[in-house]
């Protein structure tokens, strides 16, 4: 494959096939260099044609909790008392800036993922 911007789905599929063939290329070889450039071209094409929205902050926080084995009580130092944690996780109260900073620092979560707008549940 000639190295050039990927503009069509066919070129994208061809680049993926080339990447698969070059995947085990030893470092420092021309094949490894080609693999690196192809990966960058594919990444650019995917970013343009298959964008992925940032996750909703509370869903992301729940995912972090599940994947790291974090309990609700473990969020208290970052969010506040047990009731406040429940309000945030149940979307009755939004994350405040201080909560976002504390979660980001304490759990090493990018601020950009927590600051996204999300809908709160309406009170019954």
Task: Briefly say what this structure is.
By secondary structure, the chain is mainly α.
Q: Main attributes?
A:
single chain; 124 residues; mainly alpha; 434 Repressor (Amino-terminal Domain); 2 domains; 0% strand
Estimated helix fraction: 55-70%
Task: Kindly estimate the percentage of residues that lie in beta strands according to DSSP.
Answer: under 5%
Q: How many domains is the backbone divided into?
A: 2
Question: Could you say what the CATH topology of the largest domain is called?
Answer: 434 Repressor (Amino-terminal Domain)
C-alpha Rg (nearest Å): 21 Å
Structural class based on helices, strands and sheet pairing: mainly alpha
Shape estimate: elongated
| Low-confidence spans | none
Distance between the termini: 60 Å
Give the number of DSSP strands.
0
Individual helix count: 7
Average pLDDT: 94
In sequence order, what are the helices and strands, one letter per element? HHHHHHH
Q: What's the main sheet like?
A: none
Just give the CATH class of the largest domain: Mainly Alpha
CATH architectural name of the largest domain = Orthogonal Bundle
